[in-house]
Amino acid sequence: DTGVSQDPRHKITKRGQNVTFRCDPISEHNRLYWYRQTLGQGPEFLTYFQNEAQLEKSRLLSDRFSAERPKGSFSTLEIQRTEQGDSAMYLCASSLGVAGETQYFGPGTRLLVL
Amino acid sequence: AQSVTQPDIHITVSEGASLELRCNYSYGATPYLFWYVQSPGQGLQLLLKYFSGDTLVQGIKGFEAEFKRSQSSFNLRKPSVHWSDAAEYFCAVGDSWGGSYIPTFGRGTSLIVHP
């Protein structure tokens, strides 16, 4: 069990560019979650997957955001036409997928949009 | 909508002193409650959770929390703080999303430990 990993750990981009983040969950976990955390705040839920199916999306996930988990293993989160307000830490978590399960978080990808 | 309030942005304690971090929640039914810790460069780690049963919950690293329905509170405690406990602490209430319980987090309390 190597834990949840995220890549890259840091990303600096210019406004208007597209960025993509990757999350590799714990191998036997079938649920995968994305959160966004801005400075001085707690994480906010973005979306989650049960295997390859995207089950829920929060209102925070605008049309510029898209997430995929094509084979039910790793997931990608893409932000198109980045804005300065997208600067945040993007966290990924995974869980076994039973009621009340513990989510295990990765270290996050910190995005800075200039 | 559910919400969590952590009234203290920063807490400073001396090493060896006791600790209590406050958390108040807003939720209509019996809540699912969590405490997480986030250290610099580390992912969020679950300290403990309450779903039902005994209202005093034991967690990892010597932490405990008590669910008090009458006060809508779920305060985190530790009898003796170690320097390594310095971190950001988040209280969260579980929100139902399509069959999973997604934590809605408070803004966090930063714990500073003096030697």
Secondary-structure map with pairings?
The complex is a heterodimer of chains A (114) and B (115).
Chain A: E1 5-7, E2 10-13, E3 19-24, E4 31-37, E5 44-50, E6 53-57, E7 65-68, E8 75-79, E9 88-95, E10 104-105, E11 109-113
Parallel strand pairs in A: 2-11
Antiparallel strand pairs in A: 1-3, 3-8, 4-5, 4-9, 5-6, 7-8, 9-10, 9-11
Chain B: E1 3-5, E2 10-14, E3 19-21, E4 24-26, E5 33-38, E6 45-50, E7 56-58, E8 64-68, E9 73-78, E10 87-97, E11 100-105, E12 109-114
Parallel strand pairs in B: 2-12
Antiparallel strand pairs in B: 1-4, 3-9, 5-6, 5-10, 7-8, 8-9, 10-11, 10-12
Query: Could you tell me the radius of gyration of chain A in angstroms?
Result: 13 Å
- How many beta strands in the DSSP annotation of chain B? 12
Query: N-to-C SSE series of chain A?
Result: EEEEEEEEEEE
C-alpha end-to-end distance of chain B: 41 Å
Mean pLDDT of chain A, to the nearest integer, reads 92
The chain pair forming the largest interface, with residue counts per chain, is: A-B, 28 and 27 residues
Alpha carbon gap, first and last residue of chain A: 36 Å
Count helical runs of chain A.
Answer: 0
Let me know the number of strands of chain A. 11
Overall geometry of chain B comes to globular
Main pleated sheet of chain A: 7 strands, mixed
Strand residues, percent of chain A: over 45%
Mean pLDDT of chain B, to the nearest integer, reads 92
Q: How would you spell out the order of helices and strands of chain B?
A: EEEEEEEEEEEE
> What overall form of chain A do the CA principal axes indicate?
globular
Proportion in helices of chain B: under 10%
How many helical stretches of chain B? Answer: 0
